Amino acid sequence: MKIGLFIPCFIDAFFPEVGIATLQLLERFDLDVVYPPDQTCCGQPLANSGFETDASGAEALFVRNFGGFDYIVGPSGSCVHHIRHHLTAVEQTEVVSDIRARTYELVEFLHDILKVDAFPWARFPHKVGLHNSCGTLRGLGHARASELREPPFSKPESLLCKVEGLELVAASRPDECCGFGGLFSVVNESVSAKMGSDKVRDFAQAKADYIVSADSSCLMHQRGCAERDNVAIKFIHIAQILNGAAA
Fold first, then answer.
1. Residue 181's CB: how many other CB atoms inside 10 A?
2. Residue 229 located in a structural domain
3. Contact between residue 243 and residue 122 where contact means Cβ atoms under 8 Å apart
């Protein structure tokens, strides 16, 4: 199985350890993982800002980079959501449609495609609070949104429960947005900061040692809120835990 490794630009710039953990984790399953070196932004910020047509260059480059793979896998729910549901600034050819359908966020790829049932190399003896970003929860279906009357499920929880020593703790408002929301945190700074502080304190009250998520952007926002509010809590991407990160 040939995998195109999609590392979003902000992870490449600010959290390269998440990209490295994703690569190493996928290679543990004997996959042929290729990182196209010319990849840049997928175009999500422009599209989210209402400048969808201006994202055509970035989207066209994504298509050129990731054609021909069995799957495209990335450690960012929001970016994968853009590719799958909003890669519309380029002509919708058969190649583009195929790329959109074959692009998966890391958690759903491990859970739905590989159907991983064990991470024998991973041990994380800590209390962990899971943050599902709005995009992964409602856009990619990582878990059941609390407002829906459906049987509960959670793909990231299912994977984390396979890690030795890890104890999941629940926030009182598990689906509440942390306030990042891309440009929302820029144009609505004070509201965004209050939402982030509330989210961090909710996890702290649940006695979480770490907040874990499939979105580094949400973790980045919450980390800033925690540091400003002097809340003693740590942050880690789910790829790092599943790859066997040491505490």
1. 22
2. yes
3. yes
Give the separation between CA 115 and CA 95, rounded to whole angstroms: 26
**Domain end (from 46, 80, 114):** 114
Residue 247: pLDDT over 70: no
| Pairing of the two strands 127-131 and 234-237 | unpaired
* Residue 191 tokens, joined: 């509201």
> For residue range 42-80, what is the model confidence (pLDDT) as tens digits?
888 888 788 888 899 999 999 999 999 999 999 999 899
Final residue of a structural domain among 83, 114, 145: 114
The domain in which residue 64 lies consists of 2-114
CA atoms of 80 and 206, how far apart (whole Å): 30
- Consecutive H or E run containing 71: strand 71-74
User: Is the backbone of residue 42 left (phi > 0), alpha (psi -120 to 50) or beta?
Assistant: alpha
Residue 79 resides in a domain: yes
Residue 56 or residue 149, greater confidence:
56
- pLDDT of residue 241 exceeding 90, the answer is yes
- Give the distance from CA 116 to its chain's centroid: 18
Closest C-alpha among 55, 123, 43 to residue 82: 43
Sheet (strand 2-5) strand order: 32-34, 2-5, 71-74, 103-105
Which CATH number belongs to the domain containing residue 237 in this structure?
3.40.50.1860
Contact status, residue 82 vs residue 58, Cβ threshold 8 Å: no
Question: What 3-state DSSP class applies to 237?
Answer: strand
CA atoms within 13 A on the CB side of 26: 28
Give rounded-to-5 percent helix, strand, coil for the chain: 50, 15, 40
